[in-house]
Amino acid sequence: MGRVSATDSLSAIVKTYDVRGLVGSQLTAEVVEAVGAAFADEVRAAGSEIVVGHDMRDSSPEFAAAFSRGARKRGADVAAIGLCSTDESYFASGSLAAPAAMFTASHNPATYNGIKMSRAGARGISLDTGLAAIRDRALGYLADGIPETADAGTERPLDVLGDYAAYLRSLVDLSGIRPLKIVVDAGNGMGGLTVPAVLGTAAGLPALPLEIVPLYFELDGTFPNHEANPLEPANLVDLQKAVVEHGADLGLAFDGDADRCFVVDENGEAVTPSAIAAIVALREITRVRASGETGEIVVLYNLICSRIVPETIEAAGAVAIRTRVGHSLIKDEMAATGAIFGGEHSAHYYFRDFWGADNGMLAAMHVLAEFGSQERPLSALAAEFTPYALSGEINSTVDDVAAAYTRIVDEFAGKAEFDELDGLTVTGFTREDAPFWWFSVRPSNTEPLLRLNVEAGTRSEMERVRDQVLALIRA
Fold this sequence. Notes:
By secondary structure, the chain is α/β, with parallel strands linked by helices. The protein has 15 helices and 22 strands. 37% of the residues lie in helices and 22% in strands.
């Protein structure tokens, strides 16, 4: 690939929170090597160590090697942790106090790959906090070559899976729960490596009272069974069927890089990520209080979470702070506020005791601990934390976002409050004779889409508001 096309490719694939693009046409070893060199410069890694890991995609080992090569040219030493989940790479970054790069395109199809980068201690890097600088420096290296330092860095292999599994076990004790049968759909992603280590005995840890029925644990970056994106209902169908067929207590579905986890109950019905966020928030607040911590306890939730999440947090005596949607944004807020936990409705869950980073496996363990400590079915437990009607996220292609906003504001002026923390949130004025409602409309960072989320006190009210707003968006 020539210099000009490589430069154009890099400019196109640096997103708000990570690097992501098509393998071969956009993401190449040449581009990745330049990014590796630029990353080493940005985190001032000359003479110190960075962590490089990768998922099971066919292109990932080559890209990880290219990134390491670029970083070593700029004097960084590399701890190559090989195949890992994204939260496993965060563990390495946190436990080693080292910057890290993870090669994955998460839930995207096999034709994509990407890089998630962190500063030491698993602190996120976004466009506003270093990713733009990495891009610009890498563009210079693509144009002029990468100058090698006098002392090139070294590389060593490092296996962190066992330590990662043991650390998660230390945070959530599952040894005393009642026996549970769980179907786990790894989607041919990295959950096929981490689930046997954390919930099973593959890492040499004691057996837990869990019978795991595996679905698609074979690591395969071509995703032969279904896309590793549990946010899409079609990708949960196999798990839902298997839970019912096996008479399991619940099911877990991980995305491609296994940093997000979705839950289905014993009937195969999906449990909303907001309900999971409320359950985990309550457990974390209770744990922190029991440990003797005093003072204000803060929990974050993003603005498309169900109202039950802040209600649960505040009822437990903690402070609920509403945030914008977005991975690096939440990680920054976790650090700024000292929050013990943060939940996103996209099924990202962040933990203070995991360096403020997100960890789907840890959230799943909290659900297992809570569910396994009582006798009711999961559907009954989840119902407690799902009292309201949610629409789920609905995407609409929109050419003129500003015009759509204007139509919405004109329609609801005098009937609702408006909030522009992230896109447009509209909350209906409280009336004693009618259920509450609110909706959020946010533009996509990467596509000409508006994303709509609606919640109301009843399903009929949610559907009424949903249909009214969709008509305005799509007018």
